[in-house]
């Protein structure tokens, strides 16, 4: 018994070392903050359409009774990474037949319309959030962010940042899980 | 020279992110808004309070806090509003609840265990020091001292 006490410092060092390894490991990104909205219903918001295009606006009601999985993508014409993920969202909408809706965050309608005109419009609905107030309801920290909303209007997943590379892998995995859970 | 000094003074002034158009007319409400925004983390530049952050979202949140205060919310309600959207993460001082027990209690626990260890070690040392010699040992020492050649 007394001998065991001598191993105590070693055990403590091992615990601290374990934490250090965990803290430095490549998979962990301390700046990634989990969204509190996961498994919560879609927040209350009601956004008008982007002026100058004929895609309808977006509100809470459109997502609550959708009856299918919807991707909600927050984007802006001034956002570079949004441009990078745009073809992937288009492919998901057209190739995989996923319903994608847009939240046009703090953007001028004319700029957004020109941007969609240039790159194409994969969105079934787009809400124009010029003040960024709906963005706060969604807990956005910036754009792009993509949410998976279940058929019953529950938020299932959030990907902060563009859905390219690892981000796309994570989103696809969450999307597959959501589909199989339906 | 004086002008240069003045310029330095201006340059050295702390950078305030709160813009004049955000400030409320009611100084009491403004003071509360400043106190709240000093406690709220900016979600973009994560180690800065929104009070001193220049990020767009930080400005929006500052305006939102002021709006809620003008509408008659208590400080607690404002915090709850923010936490409902951004999580406990936005608070620089995390709340005391089951998921944060380890965070709040661990330092005191470690201190307590450490202090206990120190007390234990010290008590052992003094006990050893005060152990008196047995009669036999005393006799032997006396014998040795007597035998010592002068």
UniProtKB/TrEMBL annotation, chain A:
NCBIfam families: dsbE
GO BP of this protein: cytochrome complex assembly
Domain of life: Bacteria
UniProt xrefs under PROSITE patterns: THIOREDOXIN_2
UniProt protein name: Thioredoxin domain-containing protein
GO MF term list: disulfide oxidoreductase activity
GO annotations of cellular component type: outer membrane-bounded periplasmic space
Keyword Transmembrane appears in the UniProt entry: no
Annotated Thioredoxin domain residues: 36-180
Classification of source organism: Bacteria, Pseudomonadati, Pseudomonadota, Alphaproteobacteria, Rhodobacterales
Organism listed in the record: Litoreibacter roseus
Principal subcellular localization: other
Record keyword Disulfide bond present: yes
Family statement: Belongs to the thioredoxin family. DsbE subfamily.
UniProtKB/TrEMBL annotation, chain B:
Role played: Required for the biogenesis of c-type cytochromes. Possible subunit of a heme lyase.
Keyword presence, Metal-binding: yes
Gene3D superfamilies given in the database record: Cytochrome C biogenesis protein
Family: Belongs to the CcmH/CycL/Ccl2/NrfF family.
Keyword annotations of the record: Cytochrome c-type biogenesis, Heme, Iron, Membrane, Metal-binding, Signal, Transmembrane, Transmembrane helix
Record GO cellular component, one term: plasma membrane
Keyword Protein biosynthesis in record: no
Full protein name: Cytochrome c-type biogenesis protein
UniProt xrefs under CDD domains: CcmH_N (cd16378)
Organism: Litoreibacter roseus
Domain CcmH/CycL/Ccl2/NrfF N-terminal: 6-145
Major place of residence: membrane
TM region(s), chain numbering: 101-122
GO molecular function terms listed in the Swiss-Prot or TrEMBL record: metal ion binding
A Pfam family assignment: CcmH
Localization terms from the record: Membrane
InterPro entries: C-type_cytochrome_biogenesis, CcmH/CycL/Ccl2/NrfF_N, CcmH/CycL/NrfF/Ccl2_sf
Cleavable signal peptide: 1-17
GO biological process, one term: cytochrome complex assembly
């Amino acid at each position: 018994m007394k001998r065991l006490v001598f191993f105590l410092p070693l055990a403590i060092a091992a615990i601290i070392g374990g934490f250090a390894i965990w803290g430095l490991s490549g998979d962990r990104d301390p700046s990634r903050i989990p969204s509190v909205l996961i498994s919560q219903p879609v927040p209350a918001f009601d956004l008008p359409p982007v002026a100058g295009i004929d895609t309808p606006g977006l509100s809470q009601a459109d997502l609550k009774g959708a009856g299918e999985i919807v991707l909600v993508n927050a984007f802006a014409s001034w956002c570079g990474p949004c441009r990078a993920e745009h073809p992937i969202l288009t492919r998901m909408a057209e190739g995989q037949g996923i319903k994608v809706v847009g939240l046009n965050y703090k953007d001028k309608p004319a700029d957004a319309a020109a941007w969609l005109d240039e790159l194409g419009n994969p969105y079934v609905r787009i809400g124009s959030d010029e003040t960024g107030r709906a963005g706060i309801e969604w807990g956005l920290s910036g754009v792009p962010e993509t949410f998976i909303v279940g058929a019953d209007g529950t938020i299932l997943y959030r990907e902060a940042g563009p859905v390219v590379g690892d981000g796309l892998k994570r989103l696809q995995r969450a999307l597959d899980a959501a589909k199989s859970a339906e | 020279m004086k002008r240069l000094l003045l310029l330095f003074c201006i340059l050295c002034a702390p950078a305030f992110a709160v813009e004049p158009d955000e400030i409320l007319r009611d100084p009491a409400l403004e003071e509360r808004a400043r106190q709240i925004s000093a406690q709220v983390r900016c979600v973009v530049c994560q180690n800065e309070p929104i009070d001193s952050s220049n990020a767009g979202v930080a400005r929006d949140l500052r305006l939102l806090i002021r709006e809620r205060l003008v509408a008659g919310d208590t400080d607690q309600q404002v915090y709850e509003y923010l936490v409902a959207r951004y999580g406990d993460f936005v608070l620089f001082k995390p709340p005391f609840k089951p998921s944060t027990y380890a965070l709040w209690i661990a330092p005191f626990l470690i201190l307590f265990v450490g202090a206990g260890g120190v007390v234990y070690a010290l008590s052992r040392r003094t006990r050893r020091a005060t152990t008196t010699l047995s009669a036999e040992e005393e006799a032997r020492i006396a014998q040795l001292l007597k035998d010592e050649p002068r």
